[in-house]
Amino acid sequence: MANTTMSGITVAASSPSNFTTVVTTAQPSFIEGLINKIPLPRWALIAIAIAVGLVLLLIIICIIKCCCCKKKRKKKEKLNLGSINGSSTTVSLVQPEMDDIECGLDEKRGRLQYSLEYDFRSQEMKVGVKQAADLKAMDSGGTSDPYVIVYLTSDIRKKYETKVYRKTLNPVFNESFVFQIPQADVAENTLVMQVYDFNRFSKHDIIGEMRLPLGDVDLQHVMEQWHELTAASKIEQEHLGEICFSLRYVPSTSKLTVVILEAKKLKRMDPNGLSDPYVKVQLILNKKKWKKKRTSVKKNTLSPYFNEAFVFYVPFNLIQNVDLVISIWDHDKVTKDDQIGKLFLGCRATGNQLRHWSDMLANPRRPVAQWHSLQPVEDVDKTLGLKTRFKLPLPNN
């Protein structure tokens, strides 16, 4: 070893054989320092990093998808505005996406093929239920057990049913039904066909229906065509008919006069498509039956003319507690008479019935006439809530 002195500084020089390489260790980076401080193995840290990356990737995909949907909506709105303003666009621009079409349309329920034929001589309408196609699947197996109910709105209680066909969406029925309907009433009727899915242990589900206003049909020719099924509408209330009568009350004599004038468009009760109607007029006091009278029977008609008057003695202090019940019946020689419909007037009534009763009280000594629509018997009886059937003793005339 030799010592070299330079400007007062002594440097030790070593020989090549005695030279020693000194390796200096660099300081660890900031990230590595943080990793070393976390008390988890390296494989756990790698798994966490991968999971975080996947979550971020999913978030980015969702953001991109939302932006694309907004762009599609804006594009559709611009196209619609352009069509309103009368601007011309090419077919490629107007054509919507298939996803948009499927979302915009109602759910497909299938189609029904039917036939219709009217015999003017016998006044009979023959309705044929041919087949159905592409019905909506109602069962878990992707099929249905369909059958069809057919009726006219003029008499919804008279319904025909086809056979049930198991596990099919394309049943072939080939069944026909005959309705007795006068030619004058055809235009006011609607033919209803409802397709149901049969369920053995639960309520039957309706697949869809078709409604055909007969006033829009040319009955001079036999028609046969397909019709798209739509969602079933609410069950309509059966049309029972209308009745016209007048009321007059004279407080000084306590006389209530009811004149049954006429009725029209009554429900058909007999097999020949007609009825033998008569009218019952009944007074109810404090929810208890009191007095009643009836008209004569009019044979084989749906629009009877009566013009019969009935006088009841009702003291003025009781008039506010009286209900007047008007009911129309169909007379039968062999079986029990059937009620066609009824209605009641009085202070407990509503609508036209209450208005008619109020007009009578507001105009004493003057008859007030008005038409009324008949209501289902069960609904009226439930509203009246009658208690007993015995007559109440009241002052004599």
Structure description:
The protein is of the alpha+beta class and 397 residues long. It contains seven helices and 18 strands. The strands form five sheets. A four-stranded antiparallel sheet has the order 7-4-3-10, with no helix packed on it. β5 and β6 form a beta hairpin. It is elongated, with a radius of gyration of 43 Å. The N and C termini lie far apart (158 Å).
Which descriptors apply to this entry?
397 residues, alpha+beta, four-stranded antiparallel beta sheet, 36% strand, disordered N terminus
Fold topology:
Blueprint: E1 2-6, E2 9-13, H1 30-37, H2 42-84, H3 91-94, H4 98-104, E3 111-119, E4 124-133, E5 146-152, E6 155-161, E7 172-180, H5 183-186, E8 190-197, E9 205-213, E10 223-228, E11 242-250, E12 255-264, E13 277-285, E14 288-294, E15 305-313, E16 322-330, E17 338-346, H6 351-362, E18 368-373, H7 377-384
Antiparallel strand pairs: 1-2, 3-4, 3-10, 4-7, 5-6, 5-8, 8-9, 11-12, 11-18, 12-15, 13-14, 13-16, 16-17
Class derived from helix and strand content:
alpha+beta
Strand content: 35-45%
Summarize the main sheet.
4 strands, antiparallel
The string of secondary-structure elements, in order, is: EEHHHHEEEEEHEEEEEEEEEEHEH
- Tell me the distance between the termini: 158 Å
Report the strand count.
18
Task: Kindly report the spatial arrangement of strands forming the biggest sheet.
Answer: 7-4-3-10
Shape by Cα distribution: elongated
Regions with pLDDT < 50 over 5+ consecutive residues?
1-26, 74-105, 388-392
